TrEMBL record:
Keywords: Membrane, Transmembrane, Transmembrane helix, Transport. It comes from freshwater metagenome. This is Unannotated protein. It is found in: Membrane. SUPFAM superfamilies: MFS general substrate transporter. The chain crosses the membrane at residues 16-39, 51-67, 79-96, 108-129, 136-159, 165-187, 199-219, 239-262, 292-312, 318-340, 352-375, 381-404, 425-444, 464-482.
Length: 489
């Protein structure tokens, strides 16, 4: 295996790795604020608008496992380069889009690029760093994920206010160039030389199909109905005409595909054939329970980032830019606190830091829920969001270290892909479940013209449930094993 021990360029490589992660995560949320302007300028249908947002998350989640394994086999640096260039090309196409179809295709290609970049960056960090330095590097990577998700809305709001929605995509280009050049110069190649070569085409196909169907169901459940069809589904000339929702069928077929995927992977491993995913990873206690906790963290953050702006703009009448600036308090809390997590981890242990972070998240969301009113000040909301961001900074930064602590470097690509899939499923669950709860409590699927008291009740209920969900994530950390001292990692 090509591994790098204390590579002299490892810290020079880290800023470009973090910048690549920033770009991918920010782009998942930056379009949320710009979407109303895009819909107006391109005269998009409701269906087009939905898919501009959904296709990125769907493709991103579906390809993480497959592309993480590609990095292990053929080189993580190569995967990062191809991914960031793909993302850049897609961003140019998106900025030049004159139709909804063109923009949807560009967002699909962005999802492919993002699914290359995320596991490539994490597995590279796992391969380059050792001991205490690995914990610091993981903290940087993890806090970047938590913080940049909150930066996206303010960037989108600012760009659409002072310029045009095209810049929500064009702003990616200089960052792509910087990351590509930095990767070529500073990031060394790492890959597993001893793994059995060959392609697991059945595993690839089943994982992509299964995850695509499951994520589709999570994203579109509110729109098409969780059980009975609420709106007709149309795709490439085909129209769903049955009373049962296509979401139900998507969940069933997705579960069957993933079940068959697990069976095939076990069979191929027994026969000594190449596999896409070593399911023994899930036998590693820290990886299994850490991934569950990561799913919960993502569920809470992305669910809140979906529902909170609806109340701030629809209930309190804030502008998109003002909303983005408020949510920036979350990112500030994440970045400011995460810098001290390696020291805290050295004194308390990674498991304790994760628990402290989740506890702060739950307390902050509870405080936010009880402080919501039609006269609540921006300062109060910002204070609770800052505390929540601090919790995200503690939990997310150390979760990455905990999850990969016992994973062999040779498997870090597929492990990175799998844990990133857990995070992505968590973000989709957050939007789906908390979004469905928000609109159910509101009693309407439209914010415009909605009752202000209904919006207040909806956001209170949603944040209260989010706090309970994070509490369950805190319970999951009870099963996490104590970490070895970082010098032994």
């Amino acid at each position: 295996m090509i591994e790098v021990d204390a590579h002299p360029r490892r810290w020079k490589a880290m800023p470009f790795i973090a910048l690549a992660v920033s770009l991918i995560i920010m782009d998942a949320t930056v379009v949320n604020v710009a979407l109303p302007v895009i819909v107006r300028d391109l005269s998009l249908s409701a269906s087009d608008a939905e898919w501009i947002n959904s296709i990125y998350s769907l493709v991103f989640a579906a390809l993480l496992i497959t592309l993480g394994r590609v990095g292990d086999l053929y080189g993580r640096r190569k995967l990062l380069l191809v991914g960031i260039i793909t993302f850049g090309i897609a961003s140019v196409i998106a900025s030049l889009s004159s139709t909804g179809s063109m923009l949807i295709c560009a967002r699909l290609l962005q999802g492919v690029g993002g699914a290359m970049v995320l596991p490539a960056t994490l597995s590279t960090v796992n391969a380059l760093f050792k001991g205490k330095e690995r914990g610091i590097a993981f903290a940087i990577w993890g806090s970047t994920i938590g913080g940049m998700a909150a930066v996206g809305p303010v960037v989108g709001g600012w760009l659409t206010t002072v310029s045009s929605w095209h810049w929500a995509f064009l702003i990616n280009i200089p960052i792509v160039i910087i990351v590509a050049l930095g990767t070529l110069i500073f990031v060394p190649e790492t890959k597993d030389e001893h793994v059995q070569k060959g392609a697991d085409f059945a595993g690839i196909a089943l994982s992509i199909v299964g995850l695509s169907l499951i994520v589709f169901g999570l994203i579109e459940g509110i729109r098409f109905g969780w059980w009975v069809t609420l709106e007709r589904f149309s795709l490439a000339g085909f129209t769903w005409s049955w009373s049962i929702s296509p979401v139900v069928v998507a969940f069933v077929l997705g579960a069957l595909a993933m079940g068959l995927f697990v069976r095939i992977e076990k069979t191929r491993a027994t026969l000594g054939r190449p596999i896409l995913l070593d399911l023994d990873l899930l036998k590693i206690k820290s990886f299994r329970y850490g991934s569950i906790a990561a799913l919960v963290v993502a569920l809470g953050e992305f669910g809140m980032l979906f529902s909170l702006p609806l109340f701030l703009q629809g209930g309190l009448g804030l502008t998109a830019l003002h909303t983005g600036v408020l949510i920036l308090a979350l990112a500030m809390g994440t970045f400011l606190i995460s810098g001290g997590t390696p020291q805290l981890s050295a004194r308390m242990g990674g498991r304790a830091v994760v628990r402290l972070g989740l506890a702060l998240e739950a307390i902050a969301i509870l405080g936010l829920s009880f402080s919501f009113s039609l006269s609540v000040s921006s300062a109060v909301i910002a204070a609770w969001l800052f505390l929540y961001g601090a919790g995200v900074g503690l939990a997310t930064a150390q979760l990455t270290s905990v999850i990969l602590a016992d994973v062999p470097v040779s498997q870090s690509g597929q492990a990175s892909g799998l844990q990133s899939t857990f995070r992505q499923l968590g973000s989709s669950l957050g939007v789906a479940l908390l979004g469905a709860l928000f609109f159910t409590r509101l009693g309407s699927t439209r914010i415009q013209g909605a009752d202000i008291d209904g919006l207040l009740a909806a956001v209170k209920t949603t944040t209260l449930v989010a706090a309970v969900v994070i509490g369950f994530g805190l319970l999951a950390t009870i099963a996490l094993p104590a970490q070895r001292p970082q010098s032994q990692l």
